[in-house]
Amino acid sequence: MGNIIETKKLCKTFSNGGLQQHVLKNIDLEIYEGDYTIIMGASGAGKSTLLYTLSGMDKPTLGQISFNNKEITKMTIDKLAQFRRKNCGFVFQQTYLIDSMSVLDNVLVSGLLVNNNKKEVVKNAKEILKKVDIKEELWTKFPTQLSGGEAQRVGIARALINNPKLVFADEPTGALNSKTGKDVLDTLTEFNNKGQSIVMVTHDIKSARRGNRIIYLKDGEIVGECNLGKYIPNDKERHQKLSDFLIKMGW
Which helix (H) or strand (E) holds 151? Predict the structure, then answer.
């Protein structure tokens, strides 16, 4: 598989009270089509900053980002917004669903930003809600009437409505209990098995096990990588390989 994203000497610096905080330092990275890439590291390592920069939600201070061989670093804010709508899906720890809209409408609104054929978008939204196991009787409910796991799966449906080339997930199970968290991970794994490319930030080793590639950040730099291969449930060797890698990284 070819790469979807390639970065060259990617840097991100923030100013804080006149002091320069170098959050990302000369990151050279490729994200490959069909991979489930996990970004790990201690708090403050730059994980979320890297995720948002890769996706075009934040601009780097220096360096280049190419998405499908097209440089996005110099795009205007409007062009970047259009790029993200067509190419990226986002799943966050908080779902950010619109409380005044129904489940179906929350998914539709993202689809209609890209496709003005409402009939087609409605059809796609219903199909994707079924695929993430949101039953039809929930489609007219409001987000506050859903469980945490249900709301997060609606968030996944919203992320997938435009058939994105890449889904970015930032601690998607961080606010969920173990059972609903597993359901969300199962949903993401199912779509990855069908070819969906995913990049996910997590602190959780159970979540990290789902990836086939682990990138470890320390103080804004990539200091290690572990390739696990395709996810197989209850694979003890895989779990041990990941655990040994994380211990080596000082996790």
Answer: helix 148-160
Report which secondary-structure segment, H or E, holds 4: strand 3-16
**Domain span including residue 99:** 3-249
pLDDT by residue for the chain (251 residues), tens digit each?
A: 689 999 999 999 998 777 888 999 999 999 999 999 999 999 999 999 999 999 999 999 999 999 999 999 989 999 999 999 999 999 998 899 999 999 999 999 999 999 999 999 999 999 999 999 999 999 999 999 999 999 999 999 999 999 999 999 999 998 889 899 999 999 999 999 999 999 999 999 999 999 999 999 999 999 999 999 999 998 999 999 999 999 999 98
Count of domains observed in the chain: 1
Task: Give the DSSP per-residue string, 52-109.
Answer: HHHTTSS--SEEEEEETTEE-TT--HHHHHHHHHHHEEEEESS----TTS-HHHHHHH
How many Cα neighbours within 13 Å face the side chain of 52? Answer: 14
Looking at residue 132, which CATH number applies to its domain?
3.40.50.300
